Amino acid sequence: MENTELSIDFTSGAVAHRLRFGGGRGQDLPKAVGLKKGANPHVVDATAGLGRDAFLLASLGARVTLIERSAHMHSLLAAALEKARMGEMAGIAARMALLQGDAKDLLPALAPEVVLVDPMHPPRGNSALVKQDMRQLRQIVGEDPDACALIKVALETAQKRVVLKWPRKAALPKGLPTPSHQIIGKSTRYDVWMR
C-alpha cells in the first residue's frame, strides 16, 4: 500500500463529492446538530481532525468553529481552509474559523449553541482496516483519553445541544449521562444531549 503524506483538501475528492451528492440537511449529522429550515446554529467542532464534518455543516449554512489541539493537524487544516478561500468554496470557508488549543479550555469562552465531539473511536472489533487517512490521523493525534472530560465540558457550555459522533455499536463512554436521543446510521451513531 502506498504510504503518502496526509493532506486535507476541501475542494476535491471525498469532501467535494459529499458536498455535491451527500443529501444536504437530510443527512444524519445535520439533523443531529439541529440544522433545520431557517436554523443555522453556531457549531463548535471540538475535535476537528480532518475537518470534513465541519466543512459539510458550513456548506449547509452553519457557522462553524473548528478546534484542533494537534499543531500538525491545525497546520493542515489552515492550509486547506486557505486553499478553499481562494476558489469556488470561498463562501463555505468564510463560515469557518479555526482555533488551535484544547477544546476543554476554549469552549467556556465560545458559548456555542451546539458542540460536536468526534473523538478517536475505540479500535474495531473486526479485522477490517479503517481508511488510510483515518489511520494517519490516529498516528498524528493519538488516542483521546480525555474524551469523557471534553463531553462534560461541552455539556456545561453548549446552549442548545451536544452531539457525540460514535461507532454505531460501541457502548457510550462510561460516566456520561444518557443522551436525549440518538440518530443511528449504518456505521455511525450520533448521541444527542439537548440542553
Q: What are the salient characteristics of this protein?
A:
195 residues, seven-stranded mixed sheet, 7 strands, single chain, Rossmann fold, alpha/beta
Descriptive report:
- The chain has 195 residues and is an alpha/beta fold.
- The chain has a single domain, classed as Rossmann fold (3-Layer(aba) Sandwich).
- It is built from eight helices and seven strands.
- A seven-stranded mixed β-sheet has the order 3-2-1-4-5-7-6, with helices on both faces.
- The termini are far apart.
- The mean pLDDT is 87.
How would you describe the shape?
globular
Secondary structure: number of strands: 7
Number of helices: 8
- The domain tally reads 1
Major sheet details: 7 strands, mixed
CATH H level, superfamily name: Vaccinia Virus protein VP39
- Which structural class fits the helix and strand makeup? alpha/beta
> Radius of gyration, Cα only, in angstroms?
16 Å
Q: Kindly provide the name of the CATH class.
A: Alpha Beta
